[in-house]
Amino acid sequence: MFGYININKPEIKFKDFDTYRSFYCGFCQILKKKYGHLGQLTLSYDLTFLYLLFTALYEPETRIKSVRCKLHPFQKRPTHTNEHAEYAADMSVLLTYYKCLDDWKDEKKRSRLLFSKALKKRVQKAQTQYPKIAKAIEENLENLQKGEEKEGVDLDTMAGHFGRILAEIFSVYEDTWQPTLYKMGYFLGKYIYLLDAYEDVEEDEKKGRYNPFSKFYQSAEFDEEVENILTLMMAESAKAYEKLPIVEHLDILRNIMYSGVWVDFARIKGARKKDV
Questions:
Q1: SS3 assignment, position 237
Q2: Distance between terminal CA atoms of the chain?
Q3: E strand or H helix at 130, and its extent?
Q4: Which of 15, 92, 216, 268 has minimal CB crowding within 10 Å?
């Protein structure tokens, strides 16, 4: 994924940051355990958020222990791990695998082709365990590629393809909260797709690649219009999120939903203004 669903570190309490980091490190350890060092390369903030969200919502038994790793060999770091970290790990390799294949088809990035081949055997178990989600990822990425080939500019349609991917991933459990999580994931996925397009629009234009914003990114109101669209996406996702009966880790999740998701938008917008 794209790594946009992160915390706003200056706005979070120290103890909450430590807790968030322990989930991130725990997720990394599970990726290593299930998929080896290649699996760790798929680690993302976006799926760390999903792992934390499911932990807060379903309150599973969670193992807490301190570990050393290659990045931090001299000091042990606390980790949180549970069954939802394993699910997030499966989704991480699935998404990365199909996205690598898509990047190869779209941009002929040889590095992405090689990475997909390296992941192929590792990802088969997740494909078998979650066939509906694997199919949704593959089909919607294919629909995105078809839309790009037609140079479609319908933002809602294009963003909706990626929205449906996250919607399926968020709504894996057939329970009371499935419709709410589907909606939350759908609009969060649309937000991610549009923010990624916003960041890449100039580079895509230079290289002749499709971007849904390419037709109007040079207008004086472009940044404001994109911000309004992104605000609508996050408002819908947050509306669904607020229906969930979450008590644990509430401050961390709200930091991400209402502040952290905007950190990269502010960075991108600031960089664009400097270049003008």
A1: helix
A2: 29
A3: none
A4: 15
- Angle in degrees, CA 136, 204, 41, rounded to 5: 55
SS (H, E, C) 194-225: HHHHHHHHHHHHHHCCCCCCCCCCCCCCHHHH
Residue 38 to residues 114, 179, 252: CA-CA distances in angstroms?
Answer: 12, 33, 28
Domains and CATH numbers, the chain: 9-257 (1.10.600.10)
The confidence score (pLDDT) of residue 98 equals 86
d(CA 156, CA 21): 34
- Tokens standing for 173? 């459990």
Q: By three-state DSSP, how is residue 60 classified?
A: coil
Instruction: Tell me the residue type at 153.
Output: V
Quick: pLDDT tens for 186-214.
999 999 999 999 999 998 888 888 899 98
Type of residue numbered 105: K
Confidence of residue 121 (pLDDT cuts 50, 70, 90): confident
